[in-house]
Amino acid sequence: MSKPIRVLIAKPGLDGHDRGAKLIARALRDAGMEVIYTGLRQTPEQIVAAAVQEDVDVIGMSILSGAHNHLFPKVVELLKEQGVDDVLIVGGGVIPDDDIPSLKAAGVDAIFTPGTTTTTTIDFIKNNVKRK
Amino acid sequence: MEMINKMLSGDKRACARLITAVENDPDEAEKIIKEIHQYTGNAHVIGITGPPGAGKSTLTDKLVKSLLNDNKKVGIIAVDPTSPYTGGSILGDRIRMQDLALDPNVFIRSMGTRGYLGGLSKSTKNAVKILDAAGYDYIIIETVGVGQSEVDIVKTADTILMIMVPGLGDDIQSIKAGIMEIGDIFVINKSDLFGADRTATEISMMLDLNQNMDRRPSIVKVTAVKNEGIDKLIEEIKNHMDYLKESGVFFERRRKNLKIEVVELIESELRKIVISHTDSENKLDNQVMNIINKEKNIYDVRDEYLSAIKK
Fold this sequence. Notes:
The complex is a heterodimer of chains A (132) and B (311). With 132 residues, chain A is of the alpha/beta class.
């Protein structure tokens, strides 16, 4: 309890479907993590500013608008500009399989598509957090 | 420490890292606080408290925007509850403050209570000190949504805003002990709702009954989502600070709070000693059996432990 994993959950882009983000926030909470929930329609700049101030271990982004190929890499790039290289970055939403390799190459650590169990996500985070 | 120098020069990431360190590691906390002590004591610390859903985060957002217009730097610490079952938490106060995330003169940090019950977390005070040293003129602490008795904020803030909303109960609620006693300014949010005037009257009548009061807390009606009444509230916050400084209460409160803080630190070290004694060799289990079997009573057992600790 002394050192919980801190996760920022954000919804970049313009779609308003936050049920998935809220569900995952709740699941991570129940897994003992501190979840900073930032709400809808976040710009990559806002997400990175929040991640820096909250000093999170993980950034989780949910997107259903189709703009993932632009927004996810943008977040990674802005983090690098700030010198942040030890944060685990995961994304979720309706993301075509074909897009996943390029997102990973851009620096997103994992992509979780519909049907993923919350346990899979929780385990991935617990096993891959970069900061101890 | 290099991190401290960076923080002092305004680096937000260093500031965030230091807050994490004081939250997670008591030994680190001690080192950091010792080093920054000389830079603290300058910020005006404002506590915002009230029941869940009263509008604390929304009001914080509007207050901060107004303070920024005065060219001030504002730090915000927003506390939300940690689950007593899993240790997890949802820290959701930033949702109402999205526009502030990118402002260079704002720093927002969310904290879980991590088992602490007074409306704040154990590390909130130290996080305030870090923001204070980092040069934030105002530090706003938003407590968890409170019920009736979470009053730790009085030990940490200079000015306390008690956020009320219409329709939460009759006038008996307003004369109960606890949180109704700690407000320096009573803010009635959602004043566009039916019953706001009545809530204001009830609080006013409650204040009429207070005795030995140097300063009567003011009552301000606002509607935070519509940004109504915020200027008046800022004026009252500044009036309260003027009062604190002119009356000497400012110094008096901080002196009292430091005394409490030192005593708490001593208690927490003593508790470690107590735990180390009572943990050893199942001795406590045996003693408890003696109590159940009526061979000893709780006070005798206490005295046995105390004499062992004193040796």
